[in-house]
């Protein structure tokens, strides 16, 4: 087809290309952080990885802190969105089968590259003043959202005393399993812990 | 008293002074790692903090990796020793009061400077080849010992199906609570989670 063929794909509008660039940067930033840690993660390295010019990257994110906190938030939202999307396909509320799948999925949130990236950011923030406040706020937002999602998927009634803390402890355990997976592949042990804790949690949330 | 007075304190023998120097270095290394992270932690910085000459520090620890892995191991052993020492003063085995105290103490292992130091070391090890193998082995040793201590203090019978995984999940939860305490003081929320999960774990370990 000739260059002027009316059948060619229309060029995406400016705004849409800008959004796509932004998304590429955010995703490259998370994988960079997961693989190279905070000290190895700069705007330039991410721009190169995303195939974007350094200038374009800096147009989107003025500072290194902007880029990496936005990246962890973006990917966390995407992962939690995917988790919420499993809801219609879950076994009936109140069944141990459902609790088992939900516990597995929640633990899954903390064992991939996103958790590695977030962990690098948290640990860097504990030493760096200019990062600390932003990462603390980000962690609070992401943590609240994870809690809300867990409550909804487990069909847990937080008006019942102890239920809120049961779900919180589950999320803490999931984070701890993520940590245990940092240096070695902990999947086999993790599966056994998840199986047992799913039974325990089901007994608390759905007493006979 | 004169310099030759027979009543003066005897000078500690060489071996004992050497052990004391080593101990000072190990403790300074953990607090340095907890406060300044891996990138801010070198043998020189630790030697200065411990009031020891750089040469003496290097006599004890040939490399940075030697110093910091030995330090985390030393302090972890000391903490676990202190935890085991509470055993004779615990309420009777099989009581919820005992389970509560033990869960608190175990969670306490993961919320102080030692955990911050260990976390910095783990995260650095996930990026640095020469650190990774040693920290992985160290984590396995310390984790096994923590598990053994938890089983003994909880008087848990690992021959019963699910008990081993219940205790493992508790240690994972403790690690997750440590992580949640990294950027903010999470003590109030943590107390509520510990209270609820102590009840849950007691119900699993000591069914009526």
TrEMBL record, chains A, B:
- The ranges of region (Disordered) come to 1-20
SUPFAM superfamilies xrefs: Homeodomain-like
Q: Which domain of life is it from?
A: Bacteria
Q: Care to name a GO molecular-function term for this sequence?
A: DNA-binding transcription factor activity
Q: What InterPro entries does this protein's entry cite?
A: Homeodomain-like_sf, HTH-type_TetR-like_transc_reg, HTH_TetR
Cite the HTH tetR-type domain residue spans from the record: 19-79
Sequence ranges of Basic and acidic residues compositional bias: 8-19
**Residue ranges the UniProt entry marks as DNA-binding:** 42-61
- Which keywords label this protein? DNA-binding
> How is this protein named in the record?
TetR family transcriptional regulator
This chain's source organism reads Streptomyces lydicus
């Amino acid at each position: 087809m000739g260059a002027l063929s009316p059948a060619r794909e229309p060029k995406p509008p400016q705004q849409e290309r800008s959004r796509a660039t932004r998304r590429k940067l955010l995703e490259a930033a998370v994988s960079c952080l997961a693989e190279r840690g905070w000290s190895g993660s700069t705007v330039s390295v991410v721009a190169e990885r995303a195939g974007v010019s350094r200038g374009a990257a800096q147009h989107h994110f003025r500072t290194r802190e902007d880029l990496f906190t936005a990246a962890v938030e973006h990917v966390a939202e995407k992962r939690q969105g995917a988790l919420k999307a499993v809801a219609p396909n879950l076994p009936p509320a109140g069944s141990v089968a459902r609790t088992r799948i939900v516990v597995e999925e929640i633990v899954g949130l903390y064992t991939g590259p996103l958790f590695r990236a977030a962990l690098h950011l948290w640990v860097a923030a504990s030493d760096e003043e200019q990062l600390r406040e932003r990462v603390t706020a980000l962690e609070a937002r992401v943590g609240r959202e994870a809690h809300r999602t867990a409550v909804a998927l487990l069909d847990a009634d937080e008006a019942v005393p102890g239920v809120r803390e049961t779900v919180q402890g589950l999320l803490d355990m999931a984070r701890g399993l993520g940590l245990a997976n940092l240096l070695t592949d902990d999947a086999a042990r993790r599966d056994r812990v998840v199986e047992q804790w799913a039974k325990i949690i089901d007994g608390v949330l759905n007493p006979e």
